[in-house]
Amino acid sequence: MKKTIAMSALALAVSFGSISCKKKVSDADLQTQATTIVNANPSATVEVKEGVAHLGGTFASQAEKDAAIKSLKEIKGVKDVHDMAKVEEMAPPPPPVETAMAVDPMVQQKVQDAVKDFPTVKVEVVNGELTLTGNVSSAQARKIKESVDALKVGKVNYNYTVK
After folding, report:
1. What pairs with residue 125 in β-bridges?
2. Which of 63, 65, 108, 136 could form a disulfide with 59 if both were Cys (CB 3.0 to 4.6 A apart)?
3. Separation between Cα atoms, residue 60 and residue 68, nearest integer Å
4. How far, in Å, CA of 103 to CA of 75, rounded?
């Protein structure tokens, strides 16, 4: 009988010991894991209190939000997820603004005709301004400038390299 009582007491002690040895995951550890999951969406937030994850912020789609909730629920130690996040569909970016060419094609043609004897010089419209590019000697640069200035076409950018 003493052996039975002793064995029962030992079994009881072992069972209490194993229950008390279960490691409880801290909120700090859960917060770290939850933050890692939510960091994929920069406008979302998560806070863990007493094993409950509180999801906040905004998501671009319901699918992204659902995926975050599912991932949070899969964290071992998270008891529940409180969803306080919003879904705000992102509007598509506006179409690029088309600007009219600020240089009249006739003016551009006149300048091209003026520099036709200099094959290394290109006439382009860059940011709405007439621009000359290429490689020329200093004598050629002087002749080009005189020819283009004589046309009185307004502002011209001389971006060619003088060698």
Report:
1. 130
2. 65
3. 12
4. 63
Query: What angle in degrees, to the nearest 10, is found between the helix axes of 105-114 and 138-151?
Result: 140
The one-letter code for the residue type at 142 is R
Say whether pTM exceeds 0.70: no
3-state secondary structure of 125: strand
Average pLDDT estimate for 61-77:
91
CA distance 40 to 59: 11
pLDDT tens for residues 16-34?
A: 554 444 567 888 888 999 8
98 is written with which tokens?
Answer: 């088309």
What span, in angstroms and rounded, lies between the C-alpha atoms of 141 and 145? 6
- Which 3 state secondary structure label does DSSP give 143? helix
Q: Which residues of 66-100 are buried (b: 16+ CB within 10 A; e: fewer)?
A: eebbebbeebeebeebeeebeeeeeeeeeeeeeee
For the CA atoms of 73, 85, 59, 57, the dihedral, rounded to the nearest 10 degrees, stands at -110
Identify the residue whose tokens are 């998560």. 46
Q: Which residue has the tokens 């006739």?
A: 106
